[in-house]
Amino acid sequence: RCICTGQTYSSLVVPKFSVQSSGQWRGIRMSKGLEQWQSRWKEGRIGFHRTAVNPYIKKYIDVLTRGRPKVKVLVPLCGKSVVMKWLAEQGHTVVGVECCTEGAEAFFQESNLTPNISDIPNIKDGKLYQSQDGNISLYVCDFFDFSRDVEADFDAVWDRGALVAINSTDRQRYADLVLSLMKQSACYLLQTVEFDQIKRTPPPYSVTIPEVQDIYGAKFNVRLLETADGMTDLDNRWGLTSLDDHLFLLTPKLPEGKTVNKYGEVENLMVTPEEWQTRWCKGHTGFHKSAINRSGKRSSCSITPSTM
Predict the structure, then answer these.
(1) In this structure, what are the phi and psi dihedrals at residue 163, rounded to the nearest 5 degrees?
(2) For residues 123 and 156, is the Cβ–Cβ distance under 8 A?
(3) Is 199 exposed, middle or buried (0-12, 13-18, 19+ CB in 10 A)?
(4) pLDDT on residue 3
(5) Do the Cβ atoms of 244 and 194 come closer than 8 Å?
(6) Contact status, residue 129 vs residue 115, Cβ threshold 8 Å
(7) 48 close to 41: Cβ distance less than 8 angstroms
(8) DSSP structure class, residue 162
């Protein structure tokens, strides 16, 4: 069962895009304490991990990147997701944030990569694991200690398993933190699951379509791309009778009169002479055609001087 809706949700309130301060997020934590997540990694209780690249990101990669060949992608609560290596192989720069050292070490070991390891300035006990070519960076720290002071200006966000691991009381602040790390032109693919939470102890949490709209709708354009049957044998053993995967495309709301061009830049809907000059200087002249427009050529032949 798969429903491709393409439905867009809107909100009556359109606040201005803002950059949050680096200290605003302190004290927020995921549904389990860091010690519990570390225990799960050490004991191999990581049923949330998938060994294959997520089919949604393969299907919607051009949507996520706006069709551009090299973008900077944020993967919050990344674990050892194989998506990160796949994105890097497509030519993108990938930044993951993971709370457990075990996840970062497992990612590099299983990817046959040797990382450079360094401290993260201003984050106690934080570590940065980075590939030799610099295309993959994994920050090991509490995600809510991460800020623009560490790294920002992301073109894209891939969120599969992050929001659904956050306590409901912290989801709004999580969404605001992610927004603060994004460019105004960025795209955010969000995958959530919906099921009868009475039958299964979180995480993951069940997050419904209306809940996504409530969390993100004030500051993002929210579009439901797909709903599909996500049931597995494990879900059956938990006693679930249904589980839906929801995939959303989120884009920051722009100030009135602004749009995103094909180069992933925010510009005015009405282009000024100065902006036209900037386009030419940057080589952003996709409107130019090297061949003669055939329809224009035929039209010019049919025009004759008017007589008075």
Answers:
(1) -55, -40
(2) no
(3) exposed
(4) 46
(5) yes
(6) yes
(7) no
(8) S
What is the residue-wise DSSP string for 163-180?
GGGS-GGGHHHHHHHHHH
- In this structure, what token pair is assigned to residue 212? 């996504």
Backbone angles phi, psi at 175, to 5 degrees: -60, -40
- DSSP code of 290? S
Handedness of CA 279, 282, 287, 291 (dihedral sign): positive
**Sign of the dihedral defined by the CA atoms of residues 91, 93, 97, 103, in that order:** positive
- Closest by CA position to 222, among listed 155, 175, 267, 162: 175
Tell me which residue of 76, 110, 102, 62 sits closest to 180, measured CA to CA: 76
Please answer whether residues 25 and 177 qualify as being in contact, where contact means their C-beta atoms are separated by less than 8 angstroms.
Answer: yes
Q: How far apart are CA 94 and CA 154, in angstroms?
A: 10
List Cβ neighbours of 198 (8 Å cut-off, separation of 6 or more): none
Cα gap 118→158, rounded to integer Å: 25
Q: Is 170 exposed, middle or buried (0-12, 13-18, 19+ CB in 10 A)?
A: middle
As given in the structure block, the two tokens for residue 55 are 């089919």
pTM of the model: 0.78
C-alpha to C-alpha distance for 266 and 260, rounded to whole angstroms: 4
Question: Within the chain, which residues score under 50 in pLDDT?
Answer: 1-4, 9-31, 49, 298-308
* Contact between residue 113 and residue 105 where contact means Cβ atoms under 8 Å apart: no
> In 3D, which of 200, 224, 202, 203 has the Cα closest to residue 212?
224
Beta-bridge partner residues of 117: 129
CA angle, corner 5, sides to 255 and 260, nearest 5?
Answer: 25
Quote the pLDDT of residue 84. Answer: 96
Q: What angle do CA 29, 164, 7 make, to 5 degrees?
A: 135
Q: Distance between CA atoms of 24 and 11, rounded to whole angstroms?
A: 25
